[in-house]
Task: structure prediction
Amino acid sequence: MSKTADEDDGPLASSGQSDVAVRLTEVTKAYGKGESAVMALRGVSVALYKGGFTAVMGPSGSGKSTFMHCAAGLDRPTSGVVHLGEVALSRLREPKLTEMRRDRIGFVFQALNLLSSLTAEQNVTLPLRMAGARADEAWLREVMARVGLSDRAGYRPAQLSGGQQQRVAIARALATRPDLVFADEPTGSLDTRTGRGVLELLRQVVDELGQTVVMVTHDPLAASYADSVLFLADGRFVGELTAPGAEQIAEWMTQLDRSVADQGGRRS
Result:
């Protein structure tokens, strides 16, 4: 579940906030300076809670990717604060920030970034090996079983289907037992049936493993697998749906697209 700006009770306190996975407080992100600056996020405040599956949607240029990058510590906000649990990511120096991303955040991207020379299992454990850490063998076996790849652990990416490759990427994101998993258009390059399997898997890791997942998507059907859907427009959160169906989500997106088109017409 999430809590948007109108309900926000400020930055994380040192107690009473242990159920919060990530919180953005008055986060603004500008690219460029002066009159040519582009405002990607405008004072965004939102809290996402542990054990939830949240989808983030919005028209093209609404700030979805920037939101994810700031929330995941991949980019620093121009102003405002991002907390992972009780740690202020936006105030960490780069070496510590890199360590936090590696140890506490998992990423699933549309571009899978699998190494063709490595097996599925080796791709899953690569981030751990690069960090000089050893994989928990029992957890690794469970993760590979959860994603349905126990019998494909020794296969290389070229020997796997697109859906199986995406499952390798999900297993890699889970290998470090992260506090939070960000998924950026995880089904964008998959056919409908394969994409459904990936979404069911994300739903499963939330329901059965207690994982926290934040998914950026443009697809109403994909978003319907989430517990809640947050809508961005022009760098601001403008609404939320809880346990919505795909049709309801599609209606919201149609309204937002029309609103953006109308504003563009008025500006021209």
Remarks:
- Residues 5-16 have pLDDT under 50 and may be disordered.
- Residues 2-267 form a domain with the Rossmann fold fold (CATH 3.40.50.300).
- The helical segments are 64-71, 94-104, 120-130, 137-146, 162-174, 192-209, 220-223, 246-267.
